[in-house]
């Protein structure tokens, strides 16, 4: 839990009282690989911080799932559009590796917003982190080739990308596993 406080305090000053309220609402949960955190058609109820692990977001398809995002340790994870709107999600969220999450429910976050001075700053910090990831991904698809997207992912998370099945990486960068294989041969 100290990890979370230290991360927040890089941009938000937390009084001991605010931290006590915030930390009392956090729920620590451990998940095995391939654990479904959110099913398609269900409403996201959690904003989570990843202490350990890798999580993927995908649209289930009959032939091949469409992976469109990953979240890694020391980052936030949530089907945030569903979390905010309180409407069902159009995609699934599942763990890829053993994962430890610190989770806040939607209702508890509303309490933190109303009962703490730093609550809104904490919420903004988390939402800005999630937004920046989404914007970065969209710009990547508009400005970079699949090879550039692969190299960027490999550069940013080299020790973690080895734990992600290649079919998920191929889907994430918008190509077939065979095309990813050709890229990997070309750059090695």
CATH architecture of the largest domain: Sandwich
The major β-sheet equals: 4 strands, antiparallel
Task: Indicate how many domains the architecture comprises.
Answer: 2
Based on helices, strands and strand pairing, what is the structural class? alpha+beta
Q: What is the name of the CATH class of the largest domain?
A: Mainly Beta
InterPro entries: cNMP-bd_dom, cNMP-bd_dom_sf, RmlC-like_jellyroll
Pfam families: cNMP_binding (PF00027)
Protein name: cAMP-binding protein
Domain Cyclic nucleotide-binding: 29-113
Structure, explained:
- The structure is a single chain.
- The protein has two domains: 141 residues, Jelly Rolls; 45 residues, no CATH class.
- The protein has nine helices and eight strands.
- Strand 4 and strand 5 form a beta hairpin.
- It is globular.
- The chain starts with a helix and ends with a helix.
- The mean pLDDT is 91.
Layout of SSEs?
Layout: H1 2-8, H2 16-25, E1 27-31, E2 36-38, E3 46-52, E4 54-59, E5 66-72, E6 76-77, H3 80-85, E7 92-95, E8 99-105, H4 106-115, H5 119-143, H6 146-156, H7 158-161, H8 166-173, H9 177-187
Features:
188 residues; alpha+beta; Jelly Rolls; 4-stranded antiparallel beta sheet; 8 strands; 49% helix; cNMP-bd_dom; RmlC-like_jellyroll
């Amino acid at each position: 839990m100290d990890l979370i406080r230290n991360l927040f305090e890089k941009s938000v000053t937390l009084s001991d009282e605010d931290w006590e309220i915030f930390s009392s609402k956090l729920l620590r949960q451990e998940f095995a690989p391939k654990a479904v955190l959110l099913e398609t058609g269900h409403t996201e109820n959690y904003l989570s911080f990843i202490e350990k692990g890798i999580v993927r977001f995908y649209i289930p398809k009959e032939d091949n799932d469409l992976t469109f995002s990953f979240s890694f340790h020391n980052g936030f994870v949530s089907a945030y559009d569903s979390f905010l709107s309180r409407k069902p999600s159009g995609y699934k969220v599942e763990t890829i590796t053993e994962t430890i999450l610190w989770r806040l429910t939607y209702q508890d976050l509303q309490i933190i917003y109303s009962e703490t001075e730093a609550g809104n700053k904490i919420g903004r910090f988390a939402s800005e982190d999630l937004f920046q990831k989404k914007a970065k991904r969209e710009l990547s698809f508009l400005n970079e080739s699949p090879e550039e997207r692969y190299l960027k992912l490999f550069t940013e998370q080299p020790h973690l990308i080895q734990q992600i099945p290649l079919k998920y990486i191929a889907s994430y960068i918008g190509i077939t596993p065979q095309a990813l294989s050709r890229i990997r041969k070309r750059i090695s």
